Amino acid sequence: MNLFETIAGHAAAMRLPLYAVTVTRVARRDDAALLSLHWHGFLRRTPLKIPGVDLPPRPVAQSMARLDMSGERLDALETALLEAAWQLGAWDLERVVRPAWWRLGVPATEVSEALRAFGYVDGDEPEQGDYTMAEAPDREEMLREAGRRGYVRWLFRPCKCGIWSAVHDGSDETLDSTGGRTLPCPVVAGPPRETEPQRTVYRLGRASGLQLRRS
Questions:
Q1: Which range marks the domain in which residue 89 is found?
Q2: Is 210 among the domain residues?
C-alpha cells in the first residue's frame, strides 16, 4: 500500500495545496478505510455572472476515496500512513480512537466529529455532496457501522504538496529542499488498540535548538 503516490498524484491533478490528510476506518474492520484530502482553495460555485452582484466563492470540496485493504495486515494502514506523512514532510501523525456514537446521551460534539470524519458537514444529509467529492459508494454504510462500533481516525498536515510549505522556517532539520523526506521512515507503528478512546501522536519532525522569533 503506497499512500504517498496516491496523495501526491491527486495533488498534482488538482493543482491545489493540501491543508490536511485524514484516513478513517470503522473499529475492528480491516477490509476498508476512507482517505480524505482537504484542499486549501476557493472557486465560484457557478460560472454565471450577474452585473452588480458579487457571487462569493466556495471552499473547494474535499476529495474522498475508499481504500481497499483486503488481505492487508491490521497494522499495514498505519505503517503506510507513517511513511506517507514522513515523505510529505508532516510534523506528526495523530491517531484518535472514538467510541460508538449511536447511544443514548451521546454529546453532540461526538456526533459532529463522526460526521466530519466520514466526510459529512454538520447538519447535512448524507445524500448531499456539496462539500465532498467522493469515490466511496459504501461511505454511508460505514458511518452507520461506526455509530455502533466506533472508529479510528488518523490525521497529518503535509509540508510537501501542502500550504504548510509557506510557513516552513527551516527549523525542522529532517526536511529536504522540497519540504519532504526520503524513506525509510524511522518511526514504527505501535500495537493497534481499539478497545477504548485514546489519542496517540507520532512525532516525525526534529529540531535541535529553540527557535526564537522577533515580533
A1: 3-203
A2: no
What average pLDDT does range 168-193 have in this prediction?
Answer: 84
Inside any domain, residue 137? yes
Total structural domains in the chain?
Answer: 1
Answer whether residue 43 shows pLDDT above 60.
Answer: no
Contacts 24+ apart (CB under 8 A), 39-45: 39/14, 39/63, 40/16, 40/162, 40/163, 41/16, 41/17
What does the pLDDT read at residue 72? 77
Instruction: State the cell numbers at 152.
Output: 479510528
pTM of the model: 0.83
Alpha-carbon distance of 163 to 89, in angstroms, equals 12
Whether 214 is in a domain gets the answer: no
Res 155 pLDDT > 70: yes
Q: How far apart are CA 90 and CA 19, in angstroms?
A: 11
Helix, strand, coil percentages for the chain (3-state, nearest 5): 25, 25, 55
Mean pLDDT of 90-119: 91
Distance (Å, whole) CA 8 – CA 192 = 27
Rama region for 168: left / alpha / beta (φ>0; ψ in -120 to 50; rest): beta
Which amino acid would we find at residue 172? D
Whether 212 is in a domain gets the answer: no
Q: For the ranges 55-59, 149-153, 155-159, which has the lowest average pLDDT?
A: 55-59
Closest CA to 25 of 92, 96, 107: 96
